[in-house]
Amino acid sequence: MTVLAHACSQATDAPERTAGTAPSVRHLGPNWYAAVMGTAIVANAGAALPLHAPWLRGVYALVWALSALMLVTLLAARTVHWTRHGDQARRQLLDPAVAPFYGCLAMALLAVGAGTLAVGGDVIGRPGALAAAGTLWILGTLVGLAAAAGIPYLMVTRHRIEAGGAAPAWLLPLVAPMVSAATGPALVAELPAGQWQAALLFACYALFGMSLLATLLVLPLVLSRLFHHGPLPLVLTPTLFLVLGPLGQSTTAVNNLADAAPGAVGAPYAHAMSAFAVLYGVPVTGFALLWLAIATAMVVRAFRRGMGFAMTWWAFTFPLGTCVTGAAGLARHTGLAAFDGLALVLYAALVTAVAVAGTRTALGLARGRLLAPPQPRPATG
Predict the structure, then answer these.
(1) Which pLDDT tens digit goes with each residue over 50-87?
(2) Which of 65, 242, 264, 377 could lock 168 by a disulfide, CB 3.0 to 4.6 Å apart?
(3) How many Cβ atoms from other residues are within 10 Å of residue 62's Cβ?
(4) Which of helix, strand or coil describes residue 265?
(5) What distance in Å separates the CA atoms of residue 157 and residue 141, rounded to the nearest whole number?
């Protein structure tokens, strides 16, 4: 975790870079995909809200277009990173504090793909949006499966993890299949009726189970680390919000799967899936609100102790967005206005978090600080 804390300390609050330390993609890590995820979820969550003003769809489409542009730019930059700085890329992959962020690549692809289908059709047309969304879902799912299996494999065989080194970021590669499970149901109705629709629906349930059970194994390790070793370093405190990701995304997944079930599977299964969406989603949302309160208190504590901006602030965004879509899904299936209200309150917090993180990131890039080489720590005697 020490390496990650050092990397994340390259923030807009850092000292001015000196000569010979020009920004370079050499120091561009996979954690930057979190900015794409956080931006895309603003459009995706907004489209799920019970607000249908025409101008709002235009705003969501604009945000989606921005997230798509960010994704293309970042994919190009990361390709250059691997091509020209392969040694650094391999070092990141073998770093137990950085490697879990490779799960963000899958989720960025999936988030932009979901937005393409939800609001992107207003810009590029329905056929183009469907083709792009399907392609991004397949690519994102494959990358997510590779990360969900590959990163834990590296953690066991190659990484050297210190006692008490468990971190919320460990959840990132594991939650990627859950994002596939939550975004795949929108494609079910686009497939031929019968075997194709049922196969995709049940595949999404398998992805849901894969991610959920893996999360249930890792989350206790994170809690144990907090209880036995105390708060995270200040710069990593925002990553506590990552725990909301599998909670909100799994609630979103079961509700979206229930929406897609009628017509894809028989009535008994469809009714059971609808009931499961509520019986699972409501308790998990309750725990998510409890964790949100704990994480918020820890963040307030960190601010009081001088926590400055770092790229870890993007951890406030996507996980919060999944809670918005989860609450919106429960509102559809329960008819309770309280869930609509919860979704709107969380969405306001999401927009605020993205606006702050996005502004600080843009300023950091403009001033050449976020991509500058890490400054050596002063020697201590």
Answers:
(1) 888 889 999 999 999 999 999 999 999 999 999 999 89
(2) 242
(3) 14
(4) strand
(5) 24
Maximum distance among all Cα pairs of the chain, rounded to whole angstroms = 72
3-state helix, strand, coil in the chain (%, to 5): 80, 0, 20
d(C-alpha 273, C-alpha 262), whole Å: 10
CB hemisphere CA count around 257 (13 angstroms): 34
Spatial contact of 238 and 313, defined as CB atoms under 8 Å apart? yes
Cα distance between residue 277 and residue 257, in whole Å: 8
DSSP 86-141: HHHHHHHHT-TTTGGGGHHHHHHHHHHHHHIIIIIHHHH-HHHHHHHHHHHHHHHH
Unique residue bearing structure tokens 């919860």:
342
Question: Do the beta carbons of residue 61 and residue 123 sit within 8 Å?
Answer: yes
CA distances from 125 to 28, 30, 48, 118, 376 (A): 33, 31, 20, 11, 50
Amino acid at 49: L
**pTM greater than the 0.85 cutoff:** yes
Place of tokens 């990484």: 159
Interval 18-61: pLDDT, tens: 334 446 788 899 999 999 999 999 999 999 998 888 899 999 99
Rg (CA), the chain: 20
